Amino acid sequence: MSFATDQQAGSDHLSANAQRMLGLRGAVFATWEARVRERVAQARNVQHPILIDTLPVFYDNIVQSISPDYPRTSAVDGTTVAAEHGGERARITSYDHNALIEEYQIFRWAIFDVLHREQVVLDHREVHTIHSSIDSGIQEAVEAFSLVHSGFRERFAAALTHDMRGPLGATITALELILRSNDLDQIKKVAGKALTNTRRMSSMVDELLDTMAFHSGENIPLTITAFPMDELVAEVLADARTAHGSRFELHAHPVDGWWDRQVFKRAIENLVSNAVKYGAPATPISVKVDQLHERLLVSVHNDGPPIPPHEQECIFQMYRRAELAQRGDPQGWGIGLPYVRAVAESHGGSIGLDSSQDRGTTFFINIPIDGRPHAGSRTLVAGQAPGAATID
């Protein structure tokens, strides 16, 4: 098998104990879920795909990290998966800090209880790695939980200014050429380029307005329909191959569900475009579609320089583009990633990131298969006190 956050390596890279842990994943989560529903009051009426959240990916990361030859030192090494778990708990459930911490403590107990029951004997290093991974996961999840409940506000206008400067300048240049030319063929050619850039700006404005509305406490307007996600992703990659060549690989299982097709297509297009823009040239870009515990997993992987740890959360922030530009970065991260996050969160899920020199970079969307019950998910209005969330 391969993993949602690491598309380059499969289970054959794992140690014997890691292999056994991977095979016991179902037993661990069955034990964990039963105990969490019993002990954590806020979890008792939470639907299974929402309760399970991003924890299966976190568990896979633990499995990888106990293998000496695997390029991952802990479950939080180079990934935002624990932070996304905390963010989902803040946005979608009635959890408080104590409930969030307690479910991680139960998770620790479930792992060691199942391993003991199945007579899996761990050495000191493996035990230490599991403990340190869970401790770090708790810390990152609580920090993200607190950040959401603080009503963190991102600054949008500067991001729009920087991202639209390119297509706006190209449009102005095209129109000036049209005014000076009497060549009808040239006018048509230049007008076509101006129209392409204008449509690009229109799309950016749509994404920006949707993202601004989401982070102001509103939801992205969703039109939920049933469709196969694997076919939508194949459609996006067909367009990408036309524009960028045959470097795209699709590894998709059939996954039918209920989501907004139009906004999801734009989200996947953004992730693919991001991989083209920042990945190593001429290397494969791999896209996976799968499902686990009634949740959809869509991941986009590229090789190339890793995203530094201090950048991994802020690249999802709207204003990050302007800050990078002010420091001399000609590209920044654009408004695409904040939009993808807003799409995922509006469907009751999240977007995560895994990036290192050895593993490459993978962005992964992790949301419920059925987005209908979560289209009105709670969001926090910027500047509100904790507990003052609005429900649309």
TrEMBL record:
GO biological process, one term: osmosensory signaling via phosphorelay pathway
MF terms in GO: phosphorelay response regulator activity; phosphorelay sensor kinase activity; protein kinase activator activity
Residues in Histidine kinase domain copies: 159-371
Gene3D superfamilies: 1.10.287.130, Histidine kinase-like ATPase, C-terminal domain
Domain of life: Bacteria
Catalytic activity reported: ATP + protein L-histidine = ADP + protein N-phospho-L-histidine
Keywords from the UniProt entry: Kinase, Phosphoprotein, Transferase
EC number(s) reported in the record: 2.7.13.3
Protein's UniProt name: histidine kinase
Organism: Massilia aurea
Native organism taxonomy: Bacteria, Pseudomonadati, Pseudomonadota, Betaproteobacteria, Burkholderiales
